[in-house]
Amino acid sequence: MISNLSRVCQAKEPSGNADSGAPCWTWLAGGLAFGSLTSLGVGYYLGKKKEERAQQKREEKQQQAKEEDAKLRQRTVIPGDFKELNEGIVRLIRAEVCSLTEQLSQALEKKQALMREKEAVEGCRNAEWGWWSKQLGMKSHVIKPSRHALLHHQIDMDVCVERIHELKKKIAELQSYLDRGEPVLRLSQDLENAPEVFTCPITFDVMDSPVVASDGYTYEEGSIRKWLRTSRVSPKTNEDMHSTLLQPNNSLRLAIKSWREEVHAGHSKMSGEL
């Protein structure tokens, strides 16, 4: 372009006049400057538009990833509190204990009635011998069934007492189980509340063997390998993963190990104080 403009200026110059070409060269320089500014403006505008489209695409992918994470979290089943279940069992057992205690009380009342009957029968000893001799058959008839009834109620009472002891033992075992389970429950809750950087983006669990995939994110090794067997799209960015190579993230693994040791040490100290 410059050579063409130069030839045009030379064609317009009168022969033998060296200063006559100055206006032409001035015009040439102005045209070049205007063309450069125009090129810069167009380049800046195209670059800005490209950057805005890239930013919009990144925001759409981030929103999609958040929606997928929300769906996965909604499908997560939250286990119930086993402590409430065990307390319900304890309440049922205690109700049964109360029922058996009432039965035992009734058995004791029957036993006392039989004892009073026995004492009344044995009071015949103070009667005269003749009357005693006449009533001897009745005495034998009354005492024998009374002894059988008393023995029967004694057996029922022994069974109730044994059952109560068994239930009390079960209550003590359940209480001990609850006492041991509460620290375990607190420890489980603390482990679930781990820093987000320690959790796998696929399972949302604390990682044991963190590895870095080709998309630049860290996953649990077993989970990402299972993912790559069925898909080559990044579970985090939803973009194609051009490589299946995985690099161990040793620094993160050591950080997770240190964090777990601190959590366990804290709960061991609390258990010792209790």
Automatic annotation (TrEMBL):
The U-box domain covers which part of the protein? 193-266
Q: Which Gene3D superfamilies match?
A: Zinc/RING finger domain, C3HC4 (zinc finger)
Could you list this entry's UniProt keywords, alphabetically sorted. Membrane, Transmembrane, Transmembrane helix
SMART domains per the UniProt record, alphabetical: Ubox (SM00504)
- Which InterPro entries does the record cross-reference, listed alphabetically? Ubox_domain, WD-SAM-U-box, Znf_RING/FYVE/PHD
- Pfam families for this protein: U-box
What are the GO BP annotations of this UniProt entry? protein ubiquitination
Which Gene Ontology molecular function entries are recorded, alphabetically? ubiquitin-protein transferase activity
Q: Where are the transmembrane segments?
A: 25-47
Top-level division of the source organism's lineage? Eukaryota
PANTHER family, per the entry: WD REPEAT, SAM AND U-BOX DOMAIN-CONTAINING PROTEIN 1
Q: What name is this protein filed under?
A: U box domain containing protein
* Taxonomic source organism: Klebsormidium nitens (Green alga)
